[in-house]
Structures are given as C-alpha cells and as structure tokens.
C-alpha cells in the first residue's frame, strides 16, 4: 500500500512448469513429475517474487489431481509461487521452453518455427 492508501498490485510473470521449472529431461513419462528442478530456478523465482507475482501454468493443473501433484512437487523442493493454473493468465512476460518470441516479422517467425528445438533437444543434440 502506498502513502495514499492505494494497494499496489505486483505485475505477473508466468512460468511454464515442465521444461522450465521441472527439468523434464525425458519428456512426458506417464504423467509423473519425475525430475528435479532446473538448476537455479528456485533461487530465480524467489528473487522475482520480491517484485512480481510468479504464476505457474501447466496443463497438469487442469484437474485437482494434477494441481495436488504440482503443489506436492513444489513443496518437496521448497519452491514458492503465488499461484498455479492451467489457464494462460494476463502477465507482462511468459517463460516457456517451447515458446518463440515474435519480433513482428512473419518470415523470421516461419524460419524459427522450422528450426525450433527445445533446450533439452539442443543439450542432447537430438537434431
């Protein structure tokens, strides 16, 4: 709350869960959350939460079972976030291992789509 008594809302940053927070090194494996966190992500999220609301988006959160599994995994690794959902919520930024940042040039976008590889694919050299 500022000196005028107005509550200041934090801006939101949305993180994808699999491949950004959960390492997801072997891709989808029967729906289980089997891997550890991406190195350094816990610390980055804690740092960002000082200034931003951090929300996780994942299709895993479509139902209560998935929400409970994500929550249990976050608790296991001591990662605190402001919310988790299956819906793309309004935010100033989206962090996703399968995203492409559109620069306004369709031809660049076409080329990026054709050449797209996740960081895991690049790391494992699965070209």
Q: Count of helices?
A: 4
Oligomer: single chain
Low-confidence stretches: none
Widest β-sheet, arrangement of strands: 3-2-1-4
Count up the domains: 2
User: How far apart are the first and last residues' alpha carbons, in Å?
Assistant: 51 Å
Whole-number mean pLDDT: 92
Number of strands: 4
Which sequence of SSEs, written as H and E, runs from N to C?
A: EHEHEEHH
Helix content: 25-40%
Structural class: alpha/beta
Q: What brief labels describe this structure?
A:
127 residues, 2 domains, 4 helices
Summarize the structure.
The protein has 127 residues and is α/β, with parallel strands linked by helices.
Can you offer a commentary on this structure?
By secondary structure, this protein is α/β, with parallel strands linked by helices. The chain folds into two domains: 12-96, no CATH class; 100-127, no CATH class. It is 29% helix and 13% strand. The chain is built from four helices and four strands; from the N terminus they run E-H-E-H-E-E-H-H. The protein has helices at residues 41-48, 64-76, 106-115, 119-124, and strands at 12-16, 53-57, 83-85, 93-95. The protein has a four-stranded parallel β-sheet with strand order 3-2-1-4, with helices on one face. Helix 2 links the parallel strand 2 (53-57) and strand 3 (83-85). The longest helix has 13 residues, at 64-76. It is globular, with a radius of gyration of 17 Å. The mean pLDDT is 92.
